[in-house]
Amino acid sequence: MSQSLYPVSDALKSSAHANKEEYQRLYQWSVEDPEAFWAEQGKRLDWIVPFSQVKNCSFAKDKASVKWYEDGQLNASYNCIDRHLPDNAQRTAIIWEGDDPTADKHITYRQLHDEVCKLANGLKQRGVNKGDRVIIYMPMIPEAAYAMLACARIGAVHSVVFGGFSPHAIADRIQDCGAKVIITANFGRRGGNQVALKDNVDKALLKDTTACVEKVIVFKFTDSPCHWNEQKDEWWHELTANCAAQCEPVAMSAEDPLFILYTSGSTGQPKGVVHTTGGYLVYASTTHHYVFDNKPDDIYWCAADVGWITGHTYIVYGPLANGATTLMFEGVPTYPDVRRMGQIVDKHQVSILYTAPTAIRALMAKGDEPVQGSVRDSLRLLGSVGEPINPEAWQWYYQKIGKSQSPIMDTWWQTETGGILITPLPGVTDLKPGSATLPFFGVTPALMSSEGEILEGEAEGNLVITSSWPGQARTVWGDHERYNQTYFSTYENMYFTGDGARRDADGYYWITGRVDDVLNVSGHRLGTAEIESSLVAHPAVAEAAVVGYPHDIKGQGIYVYLLPTDGTEITPELTKAVRTWVREDLSPIASPDMIQWTTGLPKTRSGKIMRRILRKIAANEYEQLGDTSTLADPSVVDELINNRLNR
Ligand code: WTA
Description:
The protein is an alpha/beta fold. Among the domains are: 75-83 and 107-285 and 302-332, ANL, N-terminal domain (Rossmann fold); 522-643, ANL, C-terminal domain (GMP Synthetase, Chain A, domain 3, 2-Layer Sandwich), CATH 3.30.300. It is 30% helix and 23% strand. A seven-stranded mixed sheet has the order 5-4-17-16-18-19-20, with helices on both faces. A five-stranded parallel sheet has the order 7-6-8-11-12, with helices on both faces. A hairpin with a 2-residue loop joins strand 9 (188-190) and strand 10. Helix 2 (20-32) crosses helix 3 and helix 8 crosses helix 9. The chain is globular. The relative contact order is 0.11. The model has no long low-confidence stretch (mean pLDDT 96). 5'-O-[(S)-ethoxy(hydroxy)phosphoryl]adenosine (WTA) is lined by residues 263, 308-310, 384-388, 410-415, 436, 497-499, 511, 513-514, 520, 525. Belongs to the ATP-dependent AMP-binding enzyme family. One of its GO terms (cellular component) is cytosol. Residues 23-80 form the Acetyl-coenzyme A synthetase N-terminal domain. Keywords: Acetylation, ATP-binding, Ligase, Magnesium, Metal-binding, Nucleotide-binding.
């Protein structure tokens, strides 16, 4: 690993929201007296009823409970919009850049207010009340943000489903959260293609399990016609045509849910991670302020999708709570060609760019072409999120995209953490390429051995957090037991992240990746169990085992071992059909990279698949399989090695 050091520039030392000395003082304060520190940060927001109690949290096994600001009341939409109106109504809240490079839009805070209020009134007219769940399945257009904020305004709980997910995945989420309304668009656009969003919703609604949905509100984004169900469907523009542009924000308790976001775990179906109103918004605002050092003149671009937590916290809630100008990009960095990212930076004079290593690696593979046709001199800060950034990709991002002038904030966090936990801060942290560096204010990471001991000093182990922070997820929707089990049962009184990490002599953290059965494919979280259950639903598949393997661009690729059902003939067409099956059943993201058919899987005598062996073979490291003597039938290993696909 690279150990070169990139010190804080003199300019940032004096101009950033925090400097080295201040960080020490603030960090110390934040961990020694979290109540006082977070009470102070709580003042970033406007409260309808001020809080008097700050922190009330326990990580106790089997009864974890996390509450922040619990007697306070506020409204997230008010905080993201209304309070900016007296001074900044005409400031641009959202810059939208279309998939089509000639399409863009600027939305002021005033316009944002009016659009959000109209939709909020429309939702109320259709019977959506405080606490009701609303699924949002939208393209990357401002209306996706309007929909989120309209829900927040009336106290409805939104659950955004990534526009790349299949009807099956939508149906599961509708059923799990009991959604009353779905907000979607007739079509989306991505990389020059139309995405049939409404069609996918229709398919999801064919199932009996989705009968809870009473209304589908459809934004007409393209002129292409879509199927229409007179009973349930209603056009957004018709619903809102006569709605007032004023809507009183509902007073929410700080601990009322703001949203549910589904994410993959190591077992079973994706879980509905629940974030509440007060703590989440304080944390989103505080981290966005310090990590991105956002100033009034900045143009801030987080190139994520609103379907992921990064989009929630750092496209919508964090920047808007801070009155920033947030850029929302509908397309992909390789369309119409690989120069797009730089061109967007120039076109909108982006000063802060936050993207993912997988995008960087995809561009890096194209040599210098991605940085041709743009100057990118407006950039002053870069960010990275989603997976470990390898030092080569870091260097390319730093030198080519940032022209060696902008430090990279490598931010480590998770859907469950609500916001960034380990990160450099501009003006504070000297950078080491590949390291997420140091904990954010109030965050207390630790490394654990597999025997459950805390490791001190330079060490490598499982990453835990020992005390709560306001942005932490409060529960798994409808299954608090699963929340306890997943995060608090591994180590006593600690939040277990599922990640491994190394701490170096300077106390810097280097995230090494998941230590559980969760894959990280192009920065997207996928559970091996989820993919396996989709595979075995195919008639030709008797058994399936899924593992990750190192992939140059995606970070991790998906390697699948399949046992066919009796009498199945293995053909290239069948392999292709299985791949298509998973794409359509789950999502194109989950599409297997390699499919190896086999007559057996390496199992222990008790029938447990030894994934360690499968991972080694998938990584083409079959010479280091370790002990295979406990296998029920060691001979399957030779067959697996001989037929391995990754050579
Ligand atoms: C990984 C995304 C290394 C990690 C915000 C984590 C990272 C999972 C980084 C969460 C980073 C995220 N360095 N690994 N900077 N950021 N990860 O829930 O394995 O989609 O557990 O949240 O992504 O993914 P999620």
